[in-house]
Design a protein that fits this description.
There is one protein chain. It is built from 19 helices and 5 strands. It is 59% helix and 6% strand. By secondary structure, the chain is an alpha/beta fold. Bound molecules: adenosine-5'-triphosphate and magnesium ion (MG). Adenosine-5'-triphosphate binds next to helix 5 and helix 14.
Length: 476
């Protein structure tokens, strides 16, 4: 009799051993919907963890680190399991479509549910393994493209913009050269391309759009530093040998899709020396360069070149009117007709239209406008300083300078040439300097003298002779 409970517990154990797998199998068809739902949810979680880890790896790679084998293998496993989950989901959707969610096809339901449950286990394991990687501080990745500020509303640039966009989609074109005289709008065109791409970035699928200026006398090392900064690439500081930078840049860019907007080339540069892979167009590696000189386009081996011309008369008038302000132009019918004459004298050169327009924005008398015409005419007639032949920037600065009202302000402006080119001057330092030279009279109080000096700076800014410095309210 005493053996009975003993046998009873053995039977219970045997039954439970039999029931567990049996119960599991019987449960599969019932739980098919639930298992599929769980599988979808956990796969999404896994994908989110995968995206975070990828972003961390991307940052680490830009800082000269290489992805660990562990991470590499994990990413491959995620990719593989994603495909497998897709197959199961497809099979489930198909089955639901054919037989409905509540069909009595127990065997079919059993098979899918079992596959889903197995896969769910693997997905969860993979998710946990991803979480066990060492934490890498999450930094914001650098944007692949950044909006560039454009000074004024761009007028009459659309057809050139469209031309270049077409070349960017043409496999036969790797390097586009844009050339034209100073002030015609080359930099503005590059910025417009950049901003256009920014608005529709997805459809162009570049990894990087990099806009840098070469400018006169620029050094290869500086170009390398500029490019590295834009693509967030770490260049070892101790490496004074540029060839090491060259290969670092090259190795990052060679497998990337990039657009390099290279502005203001004065002479040909050795792209390979900088580390830029020679774009042949087919791999979405493109360069658009600008220069004042057609021969630079030739020497850089561009596949196509575009000459940027001055704007059409209607657009020129629009640009001029915007710079002068409608109020001034419309203040008197005679001023309007003189303004049209002044505008024509600018020969459609955007830089001249803007400079001259802004200089005239405060002029409301006929005499002032007639003076302006005479002064522009003089420039045109006075040998090599004419508007067309001289450097247009110089001519327009000359015009703005000539029409300044008082000699004192003219002299004050000339002192700015004592600072290096492109230097931001402290406004206070500049006024101090004028006071020291006796160009800025000391008034009743020193504060009055400073105020007068500051308003002189504002007048020079209005005439486009000075512009804001690095710290816009304190420097020029
Ligand atoms: N189509 C345009 N519409 C409006 N403004 C323009 C246009 N083209 C140029 N500008 C303006 O004219 C000025 C000179 O243009 P930009 O700097 O682009 O000339 P550039 O050809 O690059 O000259 P440089 O050879 O000296 O570098 C800028 O203030 C710019 O904003
Ligand atoms: Mg330029």
């Amino acid at each position: 009799m005493a053996l009975l409970p003993f046998f009873g517990s053995i039977v219970a154990v045997v039954l439970s051993q039999l029931w567990n797998p049996l119960g599991l199998h019987l449960g599969y068809p019932v739980k098919v919907g639930g298992n599929m739902k769980k599988l979808t949810i956990f796969t999404k979680r896994l994908q989110a963890r995968r995206d975070d880890i990828k972003a961390q790896i991307d940052i680490a790679e830009r800082r000269h680190k290489t992805r660990k084998h562990k991470a590499k293998e994990w990413l491959q496993s995620v990719k593989a399991i994603e495909g497998e989950v897709k197959v199961i989901k497809h099979a489930y959707d198909e089955r639901c479509r054919c037989c409905g969610e509540f069909s009595l096809d127990i065997i079919g339901k059993h098979r899918i549910s079992r596959r889903a449950a197995k896969k769910l286990k693997q997905v969860m394991e993979l998710f946990d393994r991803g979480g066990a990687f060492e934490e890498i501080a999450v930094e914001l990745p650098l944007p692949s493209i950044e909006e560039m500020p454009i000074a004024s509303a761009v007028i009459g640039m659309q057809s050139n913009l469209e031309k270049i966009l077409r070349h960017l989609e043409d496999d036969k074109v790797g390097v586009v050269g844009v050339w034209g005289m100073g002030g015609v709008g080359k930099t503005t065109l590059l910025k417009s391309i950049n901003n256009h791409l920014l608005a529709d970035f997805e459809s162009f699928c570049y990894d990087h759009v990099v806009c840098i200026a070469a400018s006169k006398g620029c050094k290869l090392e500086n170009l390398q530093l500029d490019i590295a900064e834009k693509i967030g690439l770490y260049l070892k500081q101790d490496s004074s040998i540029t060839t090491s930078h060259t290969s670092t840049i090259f190795n990052l860019l060679k497998n990337k899709k990039f657009l390099l907007l290279l502005d203001d080339l004065w002479e040909p540069i050795d792209l390979a020396g900088v580390g830029i892979p020679q774009p042949n167009g087919t791999r979405n590696q493109k360069i658009v360069l600008t220069t004042r000189f057609e021969k630079v386009c030739g020497n850089m081996g561009v596949h196509t070149k575009i000459k940027l011309e001055c704007v059409e008369p209607d657009n020129a008038w629009e640009l001029f009117k915007n710079s002068v302000s409608e109020d001034t132009v419309n203040s008197d019918a005679r001023i309007q007709s003189l303004a049209r004459k002044v505008c024509r004298r600018c020969s459609g050169l955007p830089l001249a239209l803007i400079f001259v327009g802004r200089s005239m924005s405060t002029k409301r008398t006929l005499q002032e406008w007639e003076n302006a015409i005479a002064s522009l005419e003089n420039m045109r007639l006075s040998g090599n300083s004419c508007m067309k032949d001289a450097h247009p920037v110089l001519s327009t600065i000359r015009f703005s300078y000539d029409i300044l009202e008082d000699e004192q302000t003219k002299r004050c402006f000339l002192t700015c040439a004592l600072w290096p080119e492109g230097y931001s001057i402290w406004k206070v330092e500049l006024v101090d300097f004028w006071m020291g030279l006796g160009l800025q009279p000391i008034r009743a109080t020193i504060e009055d003298a400073y105020n007068e000096g500051f308003s002189r700076i504002e007048r020079l800014k209005k005439a486009c002779l000075l512009e804001d410095g690095d710290v816009s309210d304190k420097e020029v």
